[in-house]
Write a structure and sequence with these properties.
Layout: H1 9-14, H2 18-34, E1 39-43, E2 46-50, E3 54-60, E4 64-68, H3 71-76, E5 85-86, E6 91-94, H4 101-113
Antiparallel strand pairs: 1-2, 2-3, 3-4, 4-6, 5-6
Length: 115
Amino acid sequence: METKKYKTVDSYLADFDGLAKQRLHELRAIIIEIIPDAEEIISYNMPAYKQDKVICFYAGYKNHIGFYPTPKPLAALAEKLVKYKTSKGAIQFPLDQPIPKTLVKQLIKYRLSIL
């Protein structure tokens, strides 16, 4: 089966429903609040926000929302991420919990500070 190729964030979000759609919209709003001038693009077939470089990506999954602010912000704020599943460059936000707005803002602000 061929993976659908997205051209816009709106088309990406349109393919979700229920809690996943709600959480994706929550995360999108937080990102836009922090970096309103960033270009909203599709990169690696998921929503991304770019100024000179890509600042962050996110994606929806069956049980979580993946947020990808790159490795350095996650390493710098590791003590605040202990209750979430993380990898080198990603954090998973469970669908059954609201998106942690303050944490997302801190991760984005850190990312912006090192660009």
